Amino acid sequence: MTEPILGRVFELDVPLVLPPQPRRRGGKAVNRTRPPRLCPYNLNWKLHWAKHAEHKRVIAEAVTWRARAARIPKADHLTVQLHWAPGDNTSADTDNLAASAKPAYDALARPTRKSTGAQWTGLQLVPDDSPRYMTKLGAVIHPGPQHTRRLWLTVQIGCVCCPGGDHQLEEDLPGE
Question: How far apart are CA 80 and CA 96, in angstroms?
């Protein structure tokens, strides 16, 4: 007997990155007393565009390989949610997690580039990461020292908001 695919939930670790070193005027690095901790990628960092691209590529490739290892099947619809456990009670903002979430979502759905034929990193589990194929729930922050410092993505096969898991948009429903 086979296990039902609809409703299965997978957890994929998303890599944390080192934040940029703060600098004083004149370009000299500030001397820190403690080493920087790994954290989620953040768009508030003032970095060169190539460094931003590198952070996004690392996240996308890691999520792609972890989803392959978890053997997530292709589906009509996915429900995804990003989770962050900072490992302490520091204040955190879910909006800053969007920079880590976007490459992770794209890694699950991004197709080939039509104009040049070049490959983007992605598994094509769903045709696109639009609302028709992917429901993106808001990010969740798990505060408290009881959690280890971790960033992960939950991927559920099907739609959590629709009965039976079959996602239907208003324009898909039969008219009166």
Answer: 17
The span from the CA of 50 to the CA of 48, in Å, is: 5
Q: Is beta strand 9-13 parallel, antiparallel or unpaired with respect to 140-141?
A: unpaired
Residues 125 and 56: their CA atoms lie apart, in Å, by 19
* Number of DSSP helices (H) and strands (E) in the chain, helices first: 2, 5
Comparing 1-10, 73-82, 134-143, the range with the smallest average pLDDT is: 1-10
d(CA 128, CA 59): 18
Q: Which of 168, 170, 169, 166 is nearest to 7 (CA)?
A: 166
Question: What predicted TM-score, i.e. pTM, was given to this entire model?
Answer: 0.79
- Is the separation of the CB atoms in 153 and 85 below 8 Å? no
The Cα–Cα gap between 88 and 125 comes to 34
Q: What is the Cα–Cα distance from 85 to 77, expressed in whole angstroms? A: 27
Q: What is the pLDDT of residue 113?
A: 59
Residue 102 token pair: 């976007």
DSSP state for residue 97 in the 8-state scheme: G
